[in-house]
Amino acid sequence: MEYAVFAVAAIIVLAGAFGVVVSRNPVHAALSLVATLFGVAVLFVAQEAHFLAAVQVIVYAGAIVVLFLFVIMLLGVDRADDLDTEPLIGQRPAAVLAGLALGGALVAVVVTSTVTGAPRSGAEDSAGADNVTQIGRLLFTEHLFAFEATSVLLVIAVVGAVVLARRRRIEEIDREEPVTDLGRDDGSAGDADEPVEEHA
Amino acid sequence: MGQYLPILMLLVLAVVFAALSFFASRLLAPRRPTAAKSAPYECGIVPSREPPERFPVRFYLIAMIFIVFDIEIIFLYPYAVIHRELGGFGLVEMAVFVVAVFAAFVYLIANGALDWGPVKHLRRVDPRVSTSRTAATTVRRVGLEGREPETGEAA
Amino acid sequence: MILGADPLLTGPIDLTAVAIVAFKTLLVFVFLLVATMLMIWFERKVHGDMTNRIGPNQAGPFGVLQSVADGIKVFFKEDLIPDRSDRFVFKLAPYLSVVPAFVTFAVVPIGGVFGDGERGVVSMFGRDTRLQLADPPIGILLVLAMSSIAVYGVMLAGWSSGSKYPLLGSVRASAQMVSYEAALGLSVVAVVLVSGTLTTSGIVASQHVWNWNIWATGAVPFIIFVIAATAELNRPPFDLVEAEQELVGGFHTEYSSVRFALFYLAEFMNTVTMSAIIVTLFLGGPNGPALIGPDWVWGPIWFFAKLLVFLFMFVWFRATLPRFRYDQLMDLGWKALIPLALGWLLLLVAVRVADDEDWNVFVVMAAALAVMAAAYGLLVLAFRAARRVHEVEAAI
Q1: Of A140, C392, A98, C278, residue with least CA distance to B86
Q2: Is A183 left (phi over 0), alpha (psi -120 to 50) or beta?
Q3: Domains of chain C, residue spans
Q4: Domain that holds residue B89
Q5: Cβ within 8 Å, pair C1-A130
Q6: Does the beta-carbon distance from B56 to A196 stay under 8 Å?
Q7: What is the pLDDT of residues A151-195, one digit of tens each?
Q8: Which of C148, C159, C178 has its CB closest to that of A57?
Q9: Cα separation, A148 vs C323, whole angstroms
Q10: Any domain includes B60
Q11: Is residue B73 part of a domain?
């Protein structure tokens, strides 16, 4: 039973990963990524890591790939790009090298335990507590610093997103001479800098 | 893991249901596609413009901010389950966490990242136009009847 | 833990268990289809009454079979796939809409006697099991996961159509669903806080008889949840996705025949499921006083009675409330619901922890309110700053 679940999930994960690499259409690649993430969630369930499985679906499939799709839609890159030209010089050899290095690291992690520490079963703290309770106990006591550092990371992410999205505007505002509000609310839903709505 | 067996069954049943519906439709429905039928819907007009290629960056910002809040909310769940065990210590650590995220939220709002409102019409001040002239003063110039006694001195 | 797992499926699973699960799955499947059909009829009938019309009255008594007639009709309609569409994604999108709609209902407890030493299980073919399809340890998170998957159905349907109105509708819809998911998640945290568990059976058990979460969480999360759920369902007054005046039919403009029917089905099934989730989270699910006869009969009766109230509420919303403008929708979600939900949650935590630690509740309340006031002041300042930026930007 365990092996059957693992086999099916592994096939989903690998097929999805293969799809991400092979798809010429970025939306298809993003969908393959969803399949991979879903397969990983199934693997988590098989390991009795229920909370992680839920997080995997909610955060990765539900938020991060949605962001990817938004970007794909935003930039209108839905037509297959010309694959013969390299956007960055030397990108492909570098990708091969990085792939080999990552593969080596993966093998090293699997065969040795110098980096991760000795493998241990998760059953040691399971006395009468469910999965979420255990995660909570560890996260909010032993790994408190990492938890609080996450909040700082989230703040940085927000600031970065806003700065990237709106930097040009702010500079223009600083250069602009003062204006006075003489107008009124025009009540239309469309935004002035929203070209999409204007032509509809 | 057994707890997920019914969910899997329902999932499979739902997929089979949808697939069978398509199959039935394929058997029963007519198939006579024409160029006009399979053109994009444009209220009966021949489509002349490609669908929009680019969208306002606000949509991207919303998705980005959603990730941040989603992660924050996910952290709140284990805390909500064991908040009794953690007591006052837990309250303080959660408060620190929420304050950081709230600061990010205030930054977002202050920068107008969440503003979708209709843009106000703004004009530069024209020095020839007196700012004291409003709709009310303009209207009052027309006709003398019905005017309030105290505005009589304007005539 | 006594609660938080279906006793049928703990330990090795034999053939009898699988048979019972299959039976329950089929039951839930049929129930969902029938309930959705009836909901479509109910909505048309009630909405008709509210707008002084008759509504469907031809097929069957009171037109009950109208949805069946429509369903059969749809199979005989031509199924078009537009030229410009991405065929694979175009065909995939209805599945991504329908499957989450079905799966979410799996965690809703329909019946069972809770409290007084009862564990909410019933005996079926000599085995103990719950009157809910599945009871995974993550319970309510499955609902959130499914609602985040449901975004894909809408998003990809619009994108793959290769047409402008569906694309505009789907971008709007996905931004809307994503925005309100945050508020939805935050109001559920309040329920988890009070009930102390993520499993739906545990949440229901903690609300035994009258200790409903709507009181225990102080009603604010309930209101936020109902608003966010309405937006998540894309139902009026949040149905900007298919604002006919602007977007023709929204994301499913290019869909016809069975493909369209599946989106329609998913929409109404989600309405039924979301009402069931509201009942489970805030109104005690099947909890209620047993009047006459055996106790276990009253669980489903109370559950369906409460469910009907919310189904009626959704129809009522549609009949009375005018549609939001997009900026109003976003402002409500981000600037009102999320800060309110977060603030209320912290207040709830502070009061509960103060209660446990024997702190003076009034001092804690005063401190919490002071913090809230400071936060509110900051937000107001931020709104002013944003207004200034917005105005100056508009002038450029």
Answers
A1: A140
A2: beta
A3: 7-324, 339-396
A4: 56-121
A5: yes
A6: yes
A7: 888 888 888 888 887 655 444 445 544 444 444 444 444 344 434
A8: C148
A9: 41
A10: yes
A11: yes
User: Is residue B1 in a domain?
Assistant: no
- For chain A, list the domains and their CATH numbers: 1-81 (1.20.120.1200)
Q: What is the pLDDT of residues B64-110, one digit of tens each?
A: 888 888 888 898 999 988 888 888 888 888 888 888 888 888 888 88
For residue C395, give the nearest of B6, B51, B122 by CB distance.
B122
Task: Count CB neighbours of C355 within 10 A.
Answer: 12
Query: A140 in contact with B at a CB cutoff of 8 Å?
Result: yes
The secondary structure element, H or E, covering residue C121 is: strand C121-124
CB pair distance less than 8 Å for A73 and C198: no
Q: Give the residue from chain B lying closest to A198, CA to CA.
A: B52
| Among A38, A52, A56, A73, the residue to mutate for chain C (most C Cβ within 10 A) | A73
Output the CA torsion B133→B134→B137→B140 (10° steps).
140
Give the total number of structural domains in chain B: 1
- Judged by CB atoms closer than 8 Å, whether chains meet at B29 and C26 is answered as no
CATH number at residue B95: 1.20.58.1610
The predicted complex's ipTM stands at: 0.85
Chain B neighbours among C 221-260 (CB < 8 Å)?
248, 253-254, 257-259
Look at residue B123 and give its three-state secondary structure: strand
pTM of the predicted structure, to 2 decimals: 0.84
